Amino acid sequence: MSAEPVNGSSEMPVKHLVSLVGNDVVLLPCDKGVKGARESAWQKTTIEKMRNPDYIRELECAGGIAVLTGKASNGLCSIDIDDDEMVEPFLALNPKLRETLRSRGRRGCNLWVRIDGAYPRPCVIKQADGSAWGEWRSTGYCTMIHGLHPEGMTYTRSPEVPPITIHFEDIQWPEDLILTWMNTCDEIPGEVPDQFPSEDEEPDDDLIRRYGAPVYYSETPTGGIYVSKINEPYWAALYASEHIMLYEPDERNFYQYEHETGLYSIISPDVIKQVISHRMLLISRTKPVLDGLEKLRTDRNLNAVIAQLRGIAEHRRAFTDRPRAVHLANCMLRIEDGSCIREGFSPKFRSRNRSPIAFDPAAKCPRFLHELVEPAVHPEDVVLLQKMAGQCLLGTNILQRFLILDGTPGGGKSQYANVIQAVVGLENVTQLRTDHLNERFELYRFIRRTLLVGVDVNKDFLQSKGAPVIKALCGGDWLDAEQKGGTGSFQFQGKFNILMTSNARLQVSLQGDVGAWKRRMLIVRYESLPPKRIIFDFADVLIREEGPGILNWMLEGLQLLLKDIEETGTIRLTDRQKGIVDSLLAESDSLRWFLTNRVRRQDGSDLTVNEIVQAYAGYCPEMGWQPMKDSQIGYQLPSLMLELFQTVKSNSCQREGKAARGFRGVAFINPEDEP
After folding, report:
1. How far is Cα 415 from Cα 80, in angstroms, rounded to an integer?
2. What is the distance between the alpha carbons of residues 171 and 110, in angstroms, rounded to a whole number?
3. How much is the mean pLDDT over the chain?
């Protein structure tokens, strides 16, 4: 595979790009038509790698090239403007930037600048109405500069001139933008910004204009001044401006974005207080007039800062209203029009769940398919398993159904479930316990999880009092979760993927709601004999050997599922697959089925309870069902007889001259009398 010349020149891309952006810039190889670097640890690439001939050859052969912005490339950063209409107004404010390198993909552009001095960390830039304007891309980010865009067009550069050098504070921004970087000093850790004016200076910083001065001064009896109080809103806003973070008020948790993983992770208020306290300490040691600030780092003051930070950073339901994407170990796969488009990590995805498996588009999984899946289930069900596994990877239940794997003991159900959990990520999985679902604190366990699993459950797993909650957990219903030791409760939406495995056929407590269970349930039946050769921890072996290949299989399943939903509104099922669900529901309501099909109204006749139970016990094997327990029959029979035949239990049915319990006005249907 050979690289193509750049813009019609005879030069190869790497040599040309280095001549354009400088020999102190780190370039990253990318796959063709993919946004984002190819390697998983691309943020750690250093300029030394650009001296390696093998790495240069890899760049030359790559389908695309990106620039590692910020510190690694000696301050080369980019201003990413999302829309063509926003470019000219920005250039009108910054005429110098007309003379800098400009690159373009599908729309808008990236303006390349080399920053002299300090500059902020990368962040998303929004307009006042909350809509996207673009991004500031610096340390920890990368920007495409050469290759093929995911939507088919080629990245272009015009004007193709070296980036200009500029101070960050000289860049002018439109007034209607929300700028979150004030007081950020990215390149020199611990450096105190100049936004701490002395008593005779006018504060002109936007953060100070919005929240007030960092500290307040008082006068001593001798005419001197000292720091007497901190301005809590300012310090809260300062922290929020220096970190990509949010506060989820329903969960009462702070989340902070991690550039290396692309995840929003919980950060405790105590850690935030330590960061703010350390920042105050550094500042207090910088100017004599601020030395009193060190003594104001009390727990009371810091708690007041945290209280202000909650309001500044609040983002309710941040993780439900987010772009649809699959978060992997080395990239994001954005779902658009049923396709997966590879992109780098970005806070715009607001992701807190990721798979630990890295994306490798060429990986396969022959052992997983040929040794675990295909020998165990019907060929139609292989595709059903694939589609449902893809939905598990997406992390939200768009289908509003749950999956049951039942049948042959030792047939591979648990190993399959273990594989799916490993690819989804064990930190995103928790146990489903139906006997606890109606308890106060059980639902809180599901927060921040995407997959609920019940492995090797008993046949009465769906007959417990809490089992009906499953329909809400996967059906998009709103539920109340209560935290143990917390105050109050908060709502969350039931969009969990649910997977169950059982050696027995489960029976459901229908409670007259057959239709709802039918809409929610899918069943894959394991009917083949167990494999002759058992491999210890086979799921671990498969993940270790074929993890990326299994990931690709699941991604293909997701695309198939999205196509089904687009074309039919739901998943495509065969008559056989629908029949398995119908049969299980009928078996769960087997007494009703028996009474409906084998008993009729007949004046002057009666049936004893024992006669009905014996006839029912013979009916179930004919249908291939397991009969109910005696206790269940005794509980359901009176209400069903009243509902179906309007007759109540009598203690005076005569059999062999003795009174017997039974029901009057009913008789068995003679099969020979049926048409």
Report:
1. 46
2. 14
3. 88
576 and 621, same structural domain?
no
* Residue 150 pLDDT: 81
d(C-alpha 236, C-alpha 311), whole Å: 9
By CB neighbour count within 10 A (0-12 exposed, 13-18 middle, 19+ buried), where does 159 fall?
exposed
- Nearest CA to 158 out of 111, 90, 201 is that of 111
Specify the pLDDT at position 190: 31
Residue whose token pair is 């065969």: 574
Residue 599 Rama label (left phi>0; alpha psi -120 to 50; beta): beta
Q: Which of 343, 17, 361, 321 is nearest to 163 (CA)?
A: 17
SS3 (DSSP) at 418: helix
Res 603 pLDDT > 90: yes
Q: Which of 98-112, 207-221, 577-591 has the lowest mean pLDDT?
A: 207-221
What DSSP line would sit under 611-672, residue for residue?
HHHHHHHHHHHHHT-PPPPHHHHHHHHHHHHHHHH---EEEEEEETTEEEEEEEEEEE--GG
pTM summary value:
0.67
Angle between helices 379-394 and 575-588 (to 10 degrees): 80
Contact 37, 146 (CB under 8 A): no
Q: Is 431 a residue whose pLDDT tops 80? A: yes
Adjacent-strand bridge partners of 234: none
| Same domain, residue pair 44 and 111 | yes
CA nearest to 32, candidates 144, 147, 146: 147
Give dist(CA 162, CA 115) in Å, integer: 13
Decide: 58 and 31 in contact? Cβ < 8 Å: no
Q: Is residue 88 scored above 90 in pLDDT?
A: yes
Tokens 């929020």 sit on residue:
240
Q: Which domain holds residue 260?
A: 206-313
Q: Answer yes or no: do 519 and 555 share one domain.
A: yes
Same domain, 487 and 383: yes
Q: Is the same domain home to 541 and 405?
A: yes
CA 97 from centre of chain = 38
Q: How far apart are CA 14 and CA 540, in angstroms?
A: 41
DSSP of 563-595 = HHHHHHSS----HHHHHHHHHHHHHHTHHHHHH
Strand partners of residue 29:
65
Q: 292 and 226 in contact (C-beta within 8 Å)?
A: yes
Helix residue ranges, H only, 314-376: 366-367
DSSP codes of every residue in 133-165: EEEEE-TT-EEEEEEB-TTSPBPEESS--PPEE
**CA–CA dist 376, 513 (Å, integer):** 32
C-alpha–C-alpha distance, residues 469 and 509, integer Å:
12
| Side-chain-side CA neighbours of residue 370 (13 Å) | 5
DSSP alpha helix (H) spans, 333-431 = 366-367, 379-394, 413-424
Q: Using omega within 30 degrees of 0 as the cis cutoff, is the peptide bond preceding 159 cis?
A: yes
Q: What are phi and psi of 139, to 5 degrees?
A: -55, 130
Domains of the chain: total: 4
> How confident is the model over 19-32, as pLDDT tens digits?
999 999 999 999 88
